[in-house]
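Quick check before the chapter quiz. The format below is the same one you will see on the exam, so make sure you can read both the input and the output lines.
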Amino acid sequence: MSRHYPASVRISITFTDGTTGEFSGQTLNNAYDAALADFRAKNDLDARGYSRTSSGRTNSGNKIDFVPVHPGMGE
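Here is the expected output.
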């Protein structure tokens, strides 16, 4: 997920166990923001995603591709 959805949009997700869930764009945006903040914290990145370590280290993958969601995720 590389962008935010409009807050009023409804998105249906089918999970691997066959259950489905319908979420608002705002709920998925909040989940994305939380996952991105967790990723940045675990990788010693600042709030904008930049590495503030010495120039000897490189960070080639500064984004997340998957956001954890689960059935019944609250709105």
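If your answer matched, good. The chain has a mean pLDDT of 79.
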